[in-house]
Amino acid sequence: MPEPWRILETRTTFRDRWLSVRTDRCVDRQGREVAAYHVLEFPGWVNVVALDPQRRIVLAREYRHGLGAVVTGLPCGSMEPGDAGPEVAARRELEEETGYRGGRFLPLSGLPANPANQDNTAWSFLALDVRPDGVRRPDPTEEIEVVLEDFAPFLGRIWRGERSIQVSHALALHQAGLYLMGDRGEDGALRAALRAEFARTIGPG
Question: Which residue from 61, 65, 128, 205 puts its CA 20 to 30 A from 142's CA?
């Protein structure tokens, strides 16, 4: 049965405001040394599937330098030291990036981002009935275009692979769709539209 490695030595080899790199020297259960093993220490992360009263999803289109391309995704960002918890961070990020705020926030998941070499958790929320009456406060290097799309057909295109989106956003969207398709979904028309899109995706039977 797998067991945690024993850490012989650990040190911080890089740190700035965004992340720390922890470099460990370890021994596994067979006594084999594992070195150097680098762990990226990030703050917690939040993703928001935000729907306005017309059941349009609020999306953020911006340049992502890791990919070197302009992409469309969910409002998202890092938790900050002053955030009392993931929902506070999610509400803050949504308003800062898009100007939308308010509504009901429902937690979808809090999962390890990449446990192989990251130590943080990615939290996802479904926000219902958000409205554009907040104040946008993007970071100095952020240039964000707010995009609204009807949620059911948008999610259908994600399910069918017709739209590209990053992995953690795809999971949050899938979880939101399942929630709204189920008995807890309060909007009967949206529930029916999502079920129709799902049926289009998987085919008859």
Answer: 128
